[in-house]
């Protein structure tokens, strides 16, 4: 009897220790620029949504629909080699894309910052460490990350000047 009780207690303790990790291991889902933009469109946030809207990243998917893009691929909007850099969340299961997520929005917030389902709330975003635990990506080497797409694999690659390009899309959060 005591042996059985010890086993039950050990099982309960193991479940208690393992279940939180199993819950955390669940995949995060992509919410889309409409969700991210709700909090990042004000002056207080540095008008980050407006910066993105004025960028080529916002037009990246549309660029695949041009006559120039079609010279390189029969249908660039279905070509894996094109979609991996001209969209966000490419190759991710449909159930990991939120209701407001649209592939047509191109290279949106979550392409660089990671799927936002668990860090999208203001309560989480107020604490950077908590947001990072919930999937917010902050790259130690932004230039290296940018070059995962901006490189010679692209048939239209003409070089990449990181400093010049970063200046066009920089979107810091104002202090204070």
Structure, described:
The chain has 176 residues and is mostly helical. Helix content is 44%, strand content 0%. It is built from eleven helices and no strands. The relative contact order is 0.14.
Layout of SSEs?
Layout: H1 2-24, H2 33-37, H3 48-53, H4 60-63, H5 67-70, H6 80-86, H7 109-113, H8 122-125, H9 128-133, H10 142-146, H11 162-169
Largest sheet: none
Shape: globular
% residues in beta strands: under 5%
Rg calculated over all Cα atoms: 21 Å
Mean pLDDT: 87
In DSSP terms, counting alpha (H) and pi (I) runs of 4 or more, how many helices? 11
The level of helicity is 40-55%
Instruction: Tell me the series of helices and strands, N- to C-terminal.
Output: HHHHHHHHHHH
End-to-end span in angstroms?
62 Å
Characteristic terms for this protein:
176 residues, mainly alpha, single chain
Short account of what is shown:
Helix content is 44%, strand content 0%. It has helices at residues 2-24, 33-37, 48-53, 60-63, 67-70, 80-86, 109-113, 122-125, 128-133, 142-146, 162-169.
């Amino acid at each position: 009897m005591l042996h059985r009780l010890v086993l039950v207690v050990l099982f309960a303790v193991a479940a208690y220790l393992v279940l939180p990790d199993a819950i955390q291991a669940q995949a995060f889902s992509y919410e889309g620029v409409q969700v991210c933009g709700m909090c990042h469109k004000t002056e207080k946030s540095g008008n980050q949504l407006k910066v993105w809207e004025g960028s080529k990243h916002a037009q990246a998917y549309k660029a695949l629909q041009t006559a120039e893009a079609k010279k390189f691929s029969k249908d660039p909007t279905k070509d894996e080699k094109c979609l991996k850099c001209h969209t966000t969340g490419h190759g991710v299961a449909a159930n990991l894309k939120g209701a407001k997520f649209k592939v047509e929005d191109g290279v949106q917030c979550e392409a660089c910052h990671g799927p936002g389902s668990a860090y999208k709330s203001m309560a989480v975003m107020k604490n950077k460490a908590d947001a990072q635990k919930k999937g917010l990506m902050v790259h130690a080497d932004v230039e290296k990350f940018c070059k995962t797409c901006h490189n010679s694999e692209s048939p239209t690659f003409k070089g990449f000047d990181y400093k010049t390009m970063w200046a066009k899309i920089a979107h810091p959060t104002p202090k204070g």
